[in-house]
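User: structure tokens for this one?
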Amino acid sequence: MEPGTVTIALGSLTLRTDGILHVVFDFDGEATKEVAAEYLEARADLEPASPPPVLLEIVQIPYVERSIRSFFMDGLPSPPCRAVVASDGAFLTMFRTFQLVEPTAVPTEVFPTVEAALAWIHEQTSLLA
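Assistant:
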């Protein structure tokens, strides 16, 4: 699929020219199954056939009930690796609640900047090649 950006209630998804899916979570509304389904649909429309590496940039996210977290994570394809950039330690803690219900283990690292996260993803993908 061609690189591009989709904006949804949770934030935005960008398939970069280097093949990395850059997801920005910037959402302070109510986390519902409908909002999660919108994200899953947008991601499916944007992603190539094989799941790309993912960069998650968390600007703001609310607490999400376990049933919605499970629905969300069950609907995601497993990327080869995931880098996380969080603006606040509390948001990182909330992200980790999603990892608790993740159906498969994905190599995941946390970084202070997008640049550091991208460098790690490029390292990981060169090891996989």
